[in-house]
């Protein structure tokens, strides 16, 4: 049963970009949908589990959730610029590399020469895999441009902060269920502030603002299930399962959202995804 639970995060996070892609709308519509849908899941989960959380941790978690929303907005913009099948592999790599470096430099992970060798070797494999997924037959016609990649990398900083905050000693004694609700409420608050301060208030009257809540529910269920997967199988094993989301989202973008790739590009994408998964798994042994 625990392995079935561990598949939920990969499925939910892999389906989210496909759902929002089908629902359409602007990035403002989509980030609001994620925040609202995830908040619905968070409220239900909070009522069922009834965890305790301090006021300080509640506020701090909300701030981190709001920072996550900035990264997700960048990803939604990138979906439109480069397509889901090109954005997800690159985003996965940026998150993995950034989180790993933060873990090494700030939290003292990968101690010893052997661990560093395995860790950085695995990251190199992941980077090569990402480069392969961006191969295009038509030079100069690829949507994976330097400016688009830099934009995605810059907005990924929000993901790094979000991924790192549970490791902060201030939250060490807080339950995962307790900080889940303020996290997702922070995403919703971040989405609302984004719409108000960027002149997108009209989005509240658009249908896509609310149909994208389905994507948020998918994301929220995945995030909450990961808490239990990590608890029953351990963070390392649970993390391996989450890497399947890049497979679902990438090929879903091609099959469901009809993002075209030639047979030559598809070969490189297949091999690139394989390397990303292998490299991601290998970091666990560092």
Give the count of helical stretches: 13
Shape: globular
- Could you list the spans in which at least 5 consecutive residues all have pLDDT below 50? none
E-strand count: 0
SSE arrangement:
Elements: H1 2-23, H2 27-49, H3 55-82, H4 84-105, H5 113-133, H6 146-155, H7 157-164, H8 176-197, H9 208-211, H10 213-233, H11 235-242, H12 244-255, H13 263-283
Helix pairs in contact: 1-10, 1-12, 2-3, 2-8, 2-10, 3-4, 3-6, 3-7, 3-8, 4-5, 4-7, 4-12, 4-13, 5-13, 8-10, 10-11
Description of the molecule:
Keywords: Membrane, Sugar transport, Transmembrane, Transmembrane helix, Transport. Belongs to the GRP transporter (TC 2.A.7.5) family. The chain crosses the membrane at residues 6-24, 31-49, 55-76, 88-107, 113-132, 144-162, 178-197, 209-229, 235-256, 268-285. The chain has helices at 2-23, 27-49, 55-82, 84-105, 113-133, 146-155, 157-164, 176-197, 208-211, 213-233, 235-242, 244-255, 263-283. The protein is 78% helix and 0% strand. It is mainly alpha-helical. Helix 3 runs antiparallel to helix 6 (146-155). The protein has one domain. The longest helix is centred in the N-terminal third of the chain and has 28 residues, at 55-82. The model has no long low-confidence stretch (mean pLDDT 90).
């Amino acid at each position: 049963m625990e392995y079935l639970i561990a598949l939920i995060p990969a499925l939910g996070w892999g389906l989210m970009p496909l759902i929002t892609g089908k629902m359409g709308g602007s990035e403002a519509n989509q980030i609001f949908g994620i925040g609202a849908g995830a908040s619905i899941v968070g409220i239900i989960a909070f009522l069922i589990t009834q965890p305790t959380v301090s006021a300080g941790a509640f506020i701090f978690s909300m701030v981190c959730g709001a920072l996550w929303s900035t990264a997700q907005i960048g990803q939604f913009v990138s979906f439109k610029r480069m397509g889901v099948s090109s954005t997800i592999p690159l985003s996965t790599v940026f998150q993995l590399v950034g989180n790993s470096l933060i873990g090494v430099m700030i939290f003292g992970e990968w101690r010893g020469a052997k661990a560093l060798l395995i860790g950085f070797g695995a990251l190199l494999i992941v980077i090569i895999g990402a480069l392969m997924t961006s191969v295009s037959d038509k030079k100069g016609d690829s949507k994976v441009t330097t400016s688009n990649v830099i934009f995605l990398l810059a907005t990924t900083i929000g993901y790094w902060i979000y991924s790192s905050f549970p490791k902060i000693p201030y939250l060490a004694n807080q339950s995962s269920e307790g900080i889940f609700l303020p996290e997702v409420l922070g995403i919703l608050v971040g989405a609302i502030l984004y719409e108000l301060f960027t002149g997108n208030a009209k989005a509240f009257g658009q249908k896509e603002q609310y149909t994208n809540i389905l994507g948020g529910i998918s994301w929220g269920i995945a995030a909450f299930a990961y808490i239990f997967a990590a608890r029953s199988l351990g963070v390392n094993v649970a993390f391996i399962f989450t890497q399947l989301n890049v497979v679902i989202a990438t090929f879903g973008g091609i099959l469901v959202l009809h993002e075209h790739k030639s047979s030559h590009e598809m070969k490189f994408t297949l091999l690139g995804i394989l390397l990303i998964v292998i490299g991601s798994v290998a970091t666990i042994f560092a």
